[in-house]
Every structure is written in structure tokens, then in C-alpha cells.
Amino acid sequence: MVQRNTWQRERVRSALAGAPGFVSAQDLHAELRGENTGIGLATVYRALANLAATGEADQLQSPDGEAIYRACASTGHHHHLICRVCGKAVEIQATEVETWAQATAAAHGFTQAEHVVDIFGTCADCTAATSARADA
Asked: Which residues are the signal sequence here (predicted)?
């Protein structure tokens, strides 16, 4: 099914591209609502799902289980390091993970295995800020 390229979808795409890291549909909707765009939450969800399906956005689950999204310039399979504090995301290559995933699948008789691996932690800037507050 071909999605129409509406102004609402374009505005969601633009807002996602301007986000500093991964954001939830609710957070993106709150930003758009604050700009009085009139774009509904259901439209934001549909647009984000479409962007993820076409590879224009990364979608993953936060440690809390919420779907979060980020505009993605990379194509193909990749992984992320994501800061729990500020949302900063770094795309990483993980050759060891790829090798392990394929070997584990093969050892159990699985073929065409796919996987999702994202690492959540605290980035250097947020760690330093936390340390500075603790020292004060």
C-alpha cells in the first residue's frame, strides 16, 4: 500500500529529523502540539511506523518497553549505543554480535536469523555532569 505524502507526514518527518536522539511518539506529538500544528497522536504513530518500515527511521524499545524513534541516515543493519539520560545515540558496528547471532542460530538449526541489539548506558557527558553534581 502506497502512503500519501501529506503535509502532516512531512511535518512528523521534519520534527523527527530535528530531534537530538530517540524520541517517543508521545514526545514528538507534544512538540508538534506545542507548535499548534493540529496533528493528532494517531497521525504521529502512523507516520513514525511508515518511516520505520521504509528505513527512514530507527525504531527500538526503550528499557521501559516504550517504542522510540530516531531519523536514520544509515541504511542496512546496524546497532546503537543510547544514553539513558540525554538520549544521545551512536551507531556502531558489532561484528562480534553478528558472528555470535549467526553461530547461535545455526547451532540450533535456525536459518535466516535476524536480531536487534541496542546498548543502553550513560554517555560521557552525562556521566561527567552527574559526577560534577555529586562533587558539589
From this structure: none
Residues 67, 25: contact at Cβ < 8 Å? yes
Tens digit of each residue's pLDDT (9 = 90 or more) over 81-111: 888 888 888 888 888 999 999 999 999 999 9
Q: What is the CATH number of domain 77-136?
A: 3.30.1490.190
73-82 confidence digits (pLDDT tens): 777 788 888 8
Q: Is 123 annotated as a binding residue?
A: yes
Is 98 marked within a binding site?
yes
Listing DSSP states for 24-63 in one string gives EHHHHHHHHHHTT----HHHHHHHHHHHHHTTSEEEEE-T
Q: In the numeric block, which cell numbers belong to residue 48?
A: 513514525
Is 83 labelled a binding residue? yes
